[in-house]
Amino acid sequence: MRKYRAWAEINLNALGDNIRNLRAKIGPDVKIMAVVKADAYGHGAIPISRAAFFSGAYMVGVGDSTEAIELRRSGILEPILVLGAVIEEEIGWMITYDITTTVHSPDLLEVLDSQARKDNKIHNIHLKIDTGMSRLGAKPEKAIEIVNRIPVYPNLNLEGISSHLSCSSNHKEKDFSAKQIGEFKHAVEMIEKFTGKTVPLKHMANTGAIYCNNDAFFNMVRVGGLIYGIDPGNLREISAEFNPILTLKSQIAFMKTVPKKTPVSYGRTMITKRRTKIATIPIGYNDGYPYHLSNKGSIIVRGYKAPLIGTVTMDYIMADVTDVPQAKVGDEVILIGKSPESDARITVEELATLCGVTPYVITCGIGKRVMRMYLRR
To answer: Could you tell me the pTM of the whole model?
Structure first.
């Protein structure tokens, strides 16, 4: 049997290829921010950040200060931006660790400046403008008010301006995306005219916009799903070039053969319709394998797809391997990824569709018990 109950193999060379394909798409003059929030969408923020910088990323984006501090404490010195909101209690850490802060309102400017002055630092901030996401950020008409107040705080530097497209990979919403892009362009022009200075970094495009909204590039793009090889919408339909970097694996821990009409797992949600060889696999919803795949997911073993049977439990799933020749305890099981022995494949997008969620939910949910293994091949 293999050493781990369940593990994720993460191909850092594939991540590098995805970033290089992105560079070919956006050109040499647009910077890349690799979004590594939520532990790099479940892939592991520290090794992914290092690989992203090695492959040409200029900056990484995280969700909150704890994620940023983890990267700093690991020895990463390159630019880090907290994309989300920060609370007053976090500001000391932001300044101490040189973590760029996104500002959504004027509320924290004074506190940021005061702490930066105490530490004898100039602290970079990015102003976020809400052009239609209605989540975080100042409305365009309020942006000038905030920019007008920044010079009062000499220890703050407006390094960037950003916004967020809400439907970037949805072709049916191209008009709304165009409206958002237009509002952002106008706001940037007004701010730069007001200040008489060019704001160094302007970013709006997320993964979907890279292939659907070239006008959203500005001079930096924020890329999450694409570098991990995850399609948030229909990008593969338009020949976007990126490949999955994650393969999720486990092994057969136990096998038994049961007669026809035998109930399987909690709730008797599945009753066998034939004499059935059942493989028990040590991964469950505590490991991030979705409960919603009960009786409708599948695994790959020995190059064959085998259906999940019964309810997904906290620690185990069961599969019908009756039609898998020579299946045995210790056999490697692929839950996400492609078989090396055949064309059989299970994608993150496929599982997300079965669960009725976005693909990012699947990888972000992979639990701590799943060992991450980083490969270069």
So the answer is: 0.93
